[in-house]
Amino acid sequence: MGLEFRAKLPSSAEIREQLPLPTELATIKAKRDQEIKDIFSGKSKRFLLIIGPCSADHQDPVLEYCNRLKEIAKQVEDSIMIVPRVYTNKPRTTGEGYKGMLHQPDPEKGANVASGIAAIRKLHMEVLRETGLSTADEMLYPDNLRYLSDIMSYIAVGARSVENQQHRLVASGTDVPIGMKNPTSGDMGVMLNSIYAAQHPHDFIFREWEVRSDGNPYAHAILRGSQSKHGQMMPNYHYEDLKLLHTLYSEKDLVNPAVVVDTNHCNSGKHYKEQLRIAQEVMHSRKYSEELATFVKGLMVESYLLEGNCKVEEHVFGKSITDACIGWEDTVRLIDNVYEYVQQTKF
May I ask the CATH class of domain 12-311+333-344? Predict the structure, then answer.
């Protein structure tokens, strides 16, 4: 077998015992979990904004960013629910490059997953402690879910993972809203099948156990654009795309129909500044159509302290070392614009 077993990693139970979530933070998280669920069930008319850096590469800039976000969250909390995007696992198209804090707690050093597990738990917990904002992360590796599942309030399954059976089955056992992205091909049927799987109970193998899931009624769609067979990036955030997805949803046995629009990736064609325009167009579609106002529940935005991106060795505090993000000034503009649209949208 072509694997070298390098180190035995701590179990989720062991890491939770070493780094327990304090009761007062668990209470804050539980309250926010319910508030986000109420958005997806339609009980709340607030709008969800999942926003933050492409990758949470260093603790200090991420905490500074989230503390700034906390101040804005207070100002818009009557209409917008802000969830910091703290992504500590990064999918890589070719397998090369920085794979996130889980793999490399220090981006300039080699892989150290044992230290990375502790680092990502500390970071998510510290964000919650300092800001009162529970977090979002991607479920890149289903077996790692329980290292963070008691801290996060939102989970995403990425475009490369959404067709995978284990991701779908584990998603059915999560207890917070979980977004299933359209695959890189853009096939909405594949995405809807993944949502169906996530919303229903299953028996399956998880971490050497036979388990049964309950199904997650808050599993929903994330539109992130797609790529053609010729490599051309194609957006799927336009009015017609949203209306089509709404129609396709109605043809499936699904509860809580909902979509979150990812403003970057193939939707922006990797032109990160386009996120402001895309957010505005999506909000305008909601304002124009009452059907979409109840269906489009949120946006997912890549944003950091400084705009653009850089190489790890450049050591630029608060600038993405993976995909380019909008900077803080544009972040404030985007949130203000979304807030105004939510205020104007009646349903």
Answer: alpha beta
